[in-house]
Amino acid sequence: MSSATSSIQTRKTLKSRLREGENLYGLFLLSLSPEIAEIAAFSGYDFIIIDLEHGAGGIREAINCIRAIEAAGCSAVVRVPDVTQAWAKKALDLGTAGIMFPMVENGRSASDAVSFCRYRLDGVRGCAYTVVRDSKFGFDEAYLANYIDNLLIMCQIESEEGVKNVNEIVAVDGMDCVMMGARDLSASLGLLHDPGNPKVKSTMRMAETAVLASDPVKGGAYLAGMATAQDMAADLWSRGYHIVLGSADVSLFKKAAVDDVKANKKSVVAVSGV
Which Pfam families match (predicted)? Predict the structure, then answer.
């Protein structure tokens, strides 16, 4: 083993932590700010999802966030904008611990997602592993033997069609985790402004039941979701979720900023008496 290879620091993968029975708590990063990413990582999140679907940044911003997250001892996941080979290869070559595909609605889409993450003959991923960050630019001599087991592949179910096909999505070999998308699901049901509607909740339960009935060790999937005002983190944990996203960086900053302004206005009133 070369000195360069032996100096590569390793940490437990997200997949291995899930297999060991851990529950993981994460955060969406929409700002794609390396500083915010680093602060979040030091705060104790198990992983941070760099959001290229709704965040304003791209690949260059994402790699800087990944470096900041990893330097702080945390794991990074990249959510790509859609289920395409081009976006997947870009995200994977950055060296992410996981990848999330949005709006997966059937088994074919989930199978495509997995194939984009694997080299031929197991998939269709482009082979540049000797020169990209994912293999430590070729310094990781065990990369090809371990890359499949090290990567967490997450598919989002966030439509009525996706829920209808949840069993075939879960059955796809190599698809590790189903991430529920409650807001998009409510929109697909015609209830965009009423995410707490009983119909949304019952549809969510159908998908949750199917995922939780599978065995991740035997080819099933872990269950992930994002806490909302209608479904708090404690609610998701109590229903058996393995992964929970607590919030997004912009949401946390928004709340902190609004609370700060309100507190200042109260203090001004208290001093002036007006």
Answer: HpcH_HpaI
Q: Any catalytic annotation for residue 242?
A: no
pLDDT tens-place string over residues 160-206: 999 999 999 999 999 999 999 999 999 999 999 999 999 999 999 99
Identify the helix (H) or strand (E) that includes residue 230.
Answer: none
pLDDT for position 270? 83
N-term to C-term CA, the chain: 73
User: Residue 182 in contact with residue 201, Cβ under 8 Å?
Assistant: no
Is 6 a member of any domain? no
Q: What is the CATH number of the domain that holds 160?
A: 3.20.20.60
| 237/132 Cα distance (integer angstroms) | 37
Q: Say which of 11, 12, 54, 255 is annotated catalytic.
A: 54
Range of the domain at 192: 15-249
Structural domain includes residue 34 = yes
